[in-house]
Amino acid sequence: MKDKIISKATELFLKLGFKSVTMDDIANEMCISKKTIYKFFCNKEILITESTEMVHKAIHESINTIATKGYNAIEENFEIKKMFKEMFKSGENSPAYQLKKHYPEIYNRVMSREVNECNTVFKQNIEKGIQQGLYRENLEVDIYVGFYYTLIFSIHDISSSEKEAQKLELEALEYHTRAMATPIGIVELEKQLQNPNIL
Length: 199
Known about the structure:
Tetracycline Repressor, domain 2
């Protein structure tokens, strides 16, 4: 039951926002009493913490799956972008923006956990791109990891809607890729940007 509550709460939080969803809403959606929810979660903040853990795990499992599929480095980044679009397609509100605004302590914990994992993903992608001749050989990898991390996470800090965040993320990905790409990488980037389902 606990996992079912977390799953339903996560779905509602991502769709309607962390602030607006109440314990009553979750109980009504599940056709259970609020008392049942409180048996597992003594307050909403604990449920939000568990929900963000679930989202974090799902995101990184999906990224790991994408990394094993044999995409080139630029394709891989666009596949990850597509995965985020699918995962958050139902939400008008940007979950990260809402979390930061209304539950800053939980947001800060989430972000500190994301730093290492995202930096590892970004670093592996850049190293892969260099090996494949898509990114320039003389890149200062750690510096570019920092640039991209700062770009992506600042977008979620300032975007109140998921649609706006998706558009800015695409711009950041193009900017990041162009800054690193070889002529062959630019050709691959242009190919990815032609995808009609990109946004």
